[in-house]
């Protein structure tokens, strides 16, 4: 962050939420030998270096909610 360049606090929230998902969900699933590739793509986008390219919070939530439907039962 910079005092000279404005930032979007919502994109910071998306980044932090992506970090949380990575640490909790992905790590726990990997330890349980569950394929986490569906989460990895979303997490990588949420934690992207360019804030403007991160998904909006609503989009990230929608995609997060769809991931369990892609996992094997």
In short:
The protein has 73 residues and is mainly alpha-helical. The chain has helices at 9-31, 37-46, 57-70. It is built from three helices and no strands.
Descriptive account of the structure:
The protein has 73 residues and is mainly α. The chain has 3 helices and no strands. Helix 1 (9-31) runs antiparallel to helix 2 and helix 2 (37-46) runs antiparallel to helix 3. The radius of gyration is 14 Å and the shape is elongated. The protein starts with 8 loop residues before the first helix and ends with a helix. The mean pLDDT is 85.
- Mean pLDDT across the residues is 85
- For this structure, the quaternary state is single chain
Rg on CA atoms, Å: 14 Å
Let me know the number of strands: 0
Helix content: 55-70%
What's the total helix number? 3
Task: Report the uncertain regions.
Answer: none
Distance, first to last CA = 42 Å
Largest sheet properties: none
Overall geometry: elongated
User: What structural class should be given to the helix and strand makeup?
Assistant: mainly alpha
What is the beta-strand fraction? under 5%
Query: How do the SSEs run, as a string of H and E?
Result: HHH
Strand and helix map with partners:
Blueprint: H1 9-31, H2 37-46, H3 57-70
Helix pairs in contact: 1-2, 2-3
């Amino acid at each position: 962050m910079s005092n000279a360049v404005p930032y979007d606090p919502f994109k910071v929230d998306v980044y932090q939420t992506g970090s949380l998902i990575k640490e909790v969900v992905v790590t726990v699933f990997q330890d349980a030998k569950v394929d986490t590739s569906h989460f990895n793509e979303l997490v990588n986008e949420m934690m992207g270096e360019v804030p403007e390219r991160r998904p909006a919070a609503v989009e990230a939530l929608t995609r997060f909610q769809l991931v369990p439907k892609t996992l094997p039962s």
